[in-house]
Amino acid sequence: MDYKSYFDIPEGISYFNTPGNGLLPKSHHAWRRQREYDFFNPKGDLREQQGPFIDTVKAAFGGMFNCPTANIFAVPNFSFGFNTLMEGLDSSLSCALLHEDYPSLNYPVLYRGFPVEWITVDAAIETNIRAVVATKKPKILLLSIVQYVSGVKIDLDFIKQLRNDFPDLLIIGDATQYLGTEPFDFLASGFDAVGGSGYKWLMAGFGNGYFMVSDRLKAMLYAKAQQMDRPTEAMWSNKTILNTFFEPGHQDTLSHGTLLQSINFFNAIGLENVQAYLNELRDYAYQAFKKHNLLLPIAEQRALKSSVVNLQIPPEWYPQLLELGIRCFPRGGGIRIGLHIYNDKTDIDYLIKSIERIKNEL
Ligand SMILES: Cc1ncc(COP(=O)(O)O)c(C=O)c1O
Fold it and tell me: What is the pLDDT, as a whole number, of residue 347?
């Protein structure tokens, strides 16, 4: 399938920077242009439709990822949503975190003084998580589904099993580097919350994000406010108490509308087709990377491959790679790339050729 044709990628560019920010399909551009035009029209009513429009976005999002609209919050990005979530929890609850997880995930937990147990990230990460959960008995496990530097992806069947084995454990996941790469069913996932930003794998630009929250976690959040008398002003009559925290004020309909365009786009092409396409592309890429000794040991050791790869080449090669049209980013001890639907085998061949060329020119 030629997914590349849905994007405007100029000749000479291989776009591998999805873990930084993803490309938006051409159809998003057309939609945004028209939307801005209509939004500026004083005769139009788009500016009055803010609330119902955000509800439409949430309904479509929930339809795709199996989450009731009442359990979804539209947020501007992961960091805002996650800080809001943690602020609503009792900070005496013990948490388990992964060493070197995304700073916007770990810091809000540390800063608020939640007691923390640390989990080592190595090839046996699932075993390490289970050991910490079984022995230290944290109340909450928090992790990114795909690690932002190494690209390690947590086995999602393991999360379901963990939830089965430790039914009282709350599991909170950051899906920013994951959602948009394969089908995902929130209610069946074992997670109590899954949140993320839309500008990477969901290809929806900046300013939109989501939090899906289970009923039992919702009941624990902002518990005091939920027990107090609710505000009586008419303008808040449709807001739940949790909405007043996760969705305070008015939202940017252009940004969240772009997320809706992404949901429509994925619905049209099918997330299971995205998954199949990426599986094949990843197989091809990982074989080539392995042959050229470019993989992190942890990526080589794990059977589960994600779309985020940290290539083991000097980060100092970044300017040369950019010059060759390879959009990527230095992260950790290497150069981080992502494989999404606008990448194909030609891009992988070109990437390998370019790395060899830089190496030979040294
Ligand atoms: C694992 C992970 N979570 C979240 C984010 C983004 O969070 P935010 O958009 O709030 O900066 C990133 C971005 O790099 C990420 O890699």
Answer: 97
The token pair that represents 123 in the structure block: 């090839």
Tens-place pLDDT, residues 8-31: 999 999 999 999 999 999 999 999
Which of ligand 1's atoms lies nearest the C-alpha of 82?
A: 10
Q: Is 197 in the pocket of ligand 1 (CB under 6 A)?
A: yes
Same domain, 47 and 175: yes
Predicted local distance difference test score (pLDDT) of residue 16:
98
52 located within any domain: yes
pLDDT at 231 (0 to 100)? 87
Judge if the beta carbon of residue 181 lies within 6 A of ligand 1.
no
- Side chain identity, residue 362: L
Is residue 29 one of the residues assigned to a domain? Answer: no
- E strand or H helix at 116: strand 116-119
User: 210: which strand partners?
Assistant: 74, 196
Do 93 and 205 lie in a common domain? yes
| CA neighbor of 142 nearest in space, from 177, 178, 180, 107 | 107
Contacts of 263 (CB under 8 A, 6+ apart): 57, 60, 61, 63, 64
308 C-alpha to center of ligand 1: Å? Answer: 13
DSSP for 239-278, written as a single string? --HHHHHHS-S---HHHHHHHHHHHHHHHHH-HHHHHHHH
In a domain, 37, yes or no: no
Residue 339 corresponds to which amino acid? L
How many structural domains does the chain have?
A: 2
Which of ligand 1's atoms lies nearest the C-alpha of 102?
1
Whether 36 is in a domain gets the answer no
Same domain, yes or no: 334 and 252: no
**Hey, what's the torsion of the CAs at 77, 80, 85, 91, to 10 degrees?**
140
Structural domain of 12: 3-18+270-361
Round to the nearest angstrom and report the end-to-end CA distance of the chain. 38
Alpha-carbon gap, residue 228 to 224, rounded angstroms = 6
- Global pTM? 0.96
Low-confidence ranges of the chain (pLDDT < 70): none
Domain boundary among 268, 302, 321: 268
> Distance (Å, rounded) from C-alpha 149 to C-alpha 333?
9
